[in-house]
Specification:
Strand order of the largest sheet: 1-2
Shape: elongated
Number of domains: 2
Helix content: over 70%
Number of strands: 2
Order of helices and strands: EEHHHHH
Largest sheet: 2 strands, antiparallel
Number of helices: 5
Structural class: mainly alpha
Radius of gyration: 32 Å
């Protein structure tokens, strides 16, 4: 069974000129319909895409304004990317034969300090001196090498527990 196609020349009038197209098709009517609607569909699709783009831009501006006024939410969003990078670092430490578990514990303790600081900053129920001390302890914790962290881990865990207790005592009223 062979399908026969017929060669057809279609003409349509534009505003200023007449266009010709040579088409080989089984059904001239379907091809003509596709050509008529394709330009209209493209214009409609373009308009819809522009409307969606504008809506998404507005939503993005609203989201960024919300994040500016709510620092805890901002921290939680960026923490996801940070966690992925930290897991990659632990994986590399384990591959090279170093103690990746200590690096993981250090990252967990850093995250816990950041959560405590964010809580203290948001609730404003702990005095400023305590908040500044916690920030300084976090900075020193972040600057530690793996060996330094291993030596001082218990001390920093105690600091974290004491800050959590201060938050509970001061903010529960």
């Amino acid at each position: 069974m062979s399908m026969s196609t017929e060669a057809t020349t279609l003409e349509w009038k534009n505003e200023n000129n007449v266009n010709e197209v040579h088409i080989e098709t089984d059904n001239v009517d379907d091809t003509l319909l596709e050509m008529r609607w394709s330009l209209a569909e493209k214009k409609k699709r373009f308009r819809m895409n522009m409307v969606e783009f504008i809506i998404w831009c507005i939503l993005l501006v609203i989201a960024f304004n919300y994040l500016k006024t709510h620092p805890a939410e901002k921290t939680s969003i960026f923490a996801g990317v940070e966690v992925l990078l930290q897991k990659a670092e632990v994986f590399l430490w384990n591959i090279t034969g170093k103690n990746g578990e200590e690096v993981r514990k250090q990252h967990e303790l850093e995250r816990y300090f950041k959560e405590l600081i964010s809580t203290m900053d948001a609730w404003k129920c702990v005095n400023v001196k305590t908040l500044e001390q916690a920030k300084k302890r976090l900075e020193s914790l972040e600057s530690f090498s793996s060996e330094q962290f291993t030596k001082s881990r218990q001390v920093y865990e105690w600091y974290a527990r004491s800050y959590a207790t201060k938050i509970q005592e001061s903010c529960s009223d």
